[in-house]
Amino acid sequence: MPSFTSSSPSLSADANAIMFMDERERARILAKAALFSPPSATLPDGRRDLVGLSREEITDILAEIGEKPFRTKQLWHWIYHQGVTDFSRMSTIAKPLQEKLAERFIIGRPEPAMVQTSSDETRKFLFRFRDGQEAETVYIPDRREDRGAVCISSQVGCTLSCTFCHTGTQKLVRNLGAAEIVSQFMAARDSYAEWPSLKGETPRLLSTIVLMGMGEPLYNYENVAKAMKIIMDGEGIGLSRRRITLSTSGVVPLMDRCGDELGINLAVSLHAVRNDLRDQIVPLNRKYPIEEVLAACRRYPAASNARRITFEYIMLRDVNDSDADARELVRLISGIPAKVNLIPFNPWPGSDYRPSTRERQAKFAEIVMNAGFASPIRTPRGRDILAACGQLKTASERARAGQTATDE
Ligand code: SAH
Ligand code: SF4
């Protein structure tokens, strides 16, 4: 099993740790992290993508071309509230300025390299970014109501090597930039024609975001945080922090920052209740063991009875699914406002695990529920389109490799 190493580029995310290092070490880590940076926001033709920039950044680049700060508000409205990608549709902006903007800027979207809709209405997108890298986004509709969750990726690949996870078999290619994170959601909305953004609690199909796609969002914290601030901005997309959930395998120092700075909901991929087992299946546990992860959950500021922390627990047959595991889980999380999502393992080619039997899942869920925690068994969605994290990308690569082979 590949192991987690402390020289991973993710260390760059922990700015505090870096501040206390000597100059050489700091330069080494920053140089390494730069290799994983997203591509420049400027296209080869010199135009710059406005998506993913903060309001202040937009104001600054407008000033560079002699435009006043109030234009930022107008542009923000058209980009994030109306969802337009064409300056000529910005009817509150005079034509000469529309043309001037179009010469210098774009409002970017990733290219949908593959879009598949499952028989259960789950829609999976494989988005291709400017440098050709790809990441997955999945829309999971709620069958009972007109709403649903958009599952967004934060990295191409992942540095962590959880043994049950298909993304974990792909090495980290790079972090996604704020623009690429925001634009996954915007492109998914394009696909459902869900513009302009609706205000407040008006029902919408794409009603929540879960940062549960490819990658470890807390190892790309700066870009994820910037993207979420854009998505939460009330004059644009305006999704409330209560409708956004970040899933982490337990990067303790950044769980604190996420709670303080973003206040979004937290999901923690626990998956095991003993450190020896969690060390194996979630190797980050060797750095941040169960006790530290749970302590960070107990102090998570956005957690309350109304906004519970979700513990994700993948059910692996004969590995972590005994009654004793369920009882220990309940003991560990007692006192935390929490619910437990039980996720039947979704097998992928080459994996050794099997999903727990239905009877096991039900018994495990019953023990957790009887202790007072909601414990839904998450029915696998989009099975027919390989909706488990990381699988579509590999399928696409395989298909393209096959294509090339037949072409030759
Ligand atoms: N890196 C973050 C977020 C992305 S992974 C994290 O680990 O939390 C999010 C979730 O994908 C994991 O908790 C796990 O529940 C799920 N997952 C990964 N591989 C899976 C598989 N083969 N079957 C079912 N769920 C899987
Ligand atoms: Fe990375 Fe999450 Fe997959 Fe683990 S489960 S390898 S942290 S994406």
Verbal overview:
It is a single chain. The protein is built from 13 helices and 13 strands. The chain is α/β, with parallel strands linked by helices. The strands form three sheets. A nine-stranded mixed beta sheet has the order 3-4-5-6-9-10-11-12-13, sandwiched between helices. Strands 1-2 form a two-stranded parallel sheet. The protein has a two-stranded antiparallel ribbon with strand order 7-8. It is elongated, with a radius of gyration of 22 Å. The structure holds S-adenosyl-L-homocysteine (SAH) and iron/sulfur cluster.
SSE blueprint:
Blueprint: H1 15-19, H2 23-34, E1 48-49, H3 55-64, H4 70-82, H5 95-104, E2 105-106, E3 111-117, E4 123-128, E5 134-142, E6 147-151, E7 155-156, E8 174-175, H6 178-191, E9 208-211, H7 221-232, E10 244-248, H8 252-261, E11 265-269, H9 275-281, H10 290-298, E12 309-315, H11 323-333, E13 338-344, H12 358-370, H13 391-407
The protein binds S-adenosyl-L-homocysteine and iron/sulfur cluster.
Count, helices: 13
Overall average residue pLDDT: 86
How would you sum up the major sheet?
A: 9 strands, mixed
Bound molecules: S-adenosyl-L-homocysteine, iron/sulfur cluster
**Percent of residues in helical segments?**
25-40%
Give the C-alpha Rg. Answer: 22 Å
Content of β-strand? 15-25%
In what order do the strands lie side by side in the largest sheet? Answer: 3-4-5-6-9-10-11-12-13
Order of helices and strands: HHEHHHEEEEEEEHEHEHEHHEHEHH
